[in-house]
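Q: Convert this sequence to structure tokens.
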Amino acid sequence: MEDTTRPKKILLIRSAANTLNTTINSLKNEFPSSKITVLAHESARKNLENNPNIDAMISAGTINRMSLFSLENKVIRKIRSGQFDLAIALYNIDHGMGYSNIDFLAWLSGAKNIRGYNVRGTFIEFNGWGVFKKYFLEKTSFTWFFINAFTTIILFVFITLGFLLEWPIRKIFTVISSKNLSQKRKKAGIPQRTESSRIHGIAPEVHQKV
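A:
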């Protein structure tokens, strides 16, 4: 008897090309009778159509980065109307950080189950809450990174300016201090030395006649 709980229609979002073949082989081993549809850039059409394990392709167009805001409405409608049982996001790294936009597309498809596959062929399952949580963590991490980088740059600029301005400020302070000291001496009636002190030689002893 056929297992009706297993996904039959799979949407695979080609977000990491080097993970594609490993993931397809894994899916075909787990779900031999499933039909795989790949969402990918138009430039990948030829390679995908030549893959015997891929049944259909949805073109994302010529955009640079796939996300809800970059895909055309007709593409999103096509994804939604596919009635997929399983949506797959591909990652270049194990934890999948940096791919929240792909996870969001997988969730947006309306698939009953969502998975994220990494380069080792292993996967994690998540739901809508997991997508939003990951998106928040990514944005928070990036925000703190930029804040730390900006703070470091500002501190470096101030420290550099401090070193550059130290010498002229010290000279100005020395001149002002000398002027103030001269004015205080004048008020106190202390004569100022205009020439350096000289040491007079001792005259040789003069012999007097008695």
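Helices lie at 20-30, 45-49, 73-81, 100-108, 128-188.
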